[in-house]
Amino acid sequence: MPAGDGKERGVKKKIGVETGQKARQHCRKQRETIVVDPAVDVDPFCFKNYLGKYECKLCGTRHVDKESYAKHVSGKRHQHFLSKKLKLSKKDDSDERDPKAKLPMNQPGSSALSSTDRVMLRKRMLPKWHVDEVIHPESGKSGYCISLWCPKMKVGVPRYRIVSTYDQSIEPVSPDKQYIVISCHPYRSVGVCILNQPIDTATVYEEFDSLTETYVLQLFHA
């Protein structure tokens, strides 16, 4: 048999194998999409930001697509935060069932502060927080996306304000800087240093998710 025929058949066989592998990968991708899409759509910790990416409100992570988010959900970090969230929810439920738990400290029958609450009142702990520099997709203006995790907040929601460099005493005065200060009692206030440029109030977005105890603030320069 001519050598050329063997080579041609070999090439055809290789192409057939590659085509079969691509077909199997395509089918597997379709199956994963069918399974992943509904799960991500009903996930209370997942939201799609203005850039079209998927963020986890529980962990503060960002993902390019639903498949990447689904892999994150099955990872150790997400499972760790999820277990902590469930423990806190169970503790809150038990406190609600205890009639003495809601009484003020100066009334008879009131329960004492927990060790965690005493430490927080004494030290005024900082919440877990994260800052990302972002670019507005339409105007191209720079901005900031700030996420805070506040599991110990019992009343109210975090509030932010813009503070001039002359109205603070923590850092040296610098005319080219200003600060975003977020109050989140019983935690200490969080201050983020930004450029001293006007803020476009029309683009300010803030949300506090009581389910995940996560506060998100996003704003852009004018």
From TrEMBL:
BP terms from Gene Ontology: spliceosomal complex assembly
UniProt feature, compositional bias: Polar residues: 107-116
Signal peptide: none
The entry's keywords: Metal-binding, Nucleus, Zinc, Zinc-finger
Basic and acidic residues composition bias: residue spans: 89-101
Residues covered by the Matrin-type domain: 54-84
Record Gene3D superfamilies: 2.60.40.2690
Annotated stretches, region: Disordered: 86-116
Location of the protein in the cell: Nucleus
Annotated InterPro entries: Matrin/U1-C_Znf_C2H2, SF3A2, SF3A2_dom
GO molecular function annotation: nucleic acid binding; zinc ion binding
A Pfam family assignment: SF3A2
GO cellular component terms listed in the entry, alphabetical order: catalytic step 2 spliceosome; U2 snRNP; U2-type prespliceosome
Protein name: Splicing factor 3A subunit 2
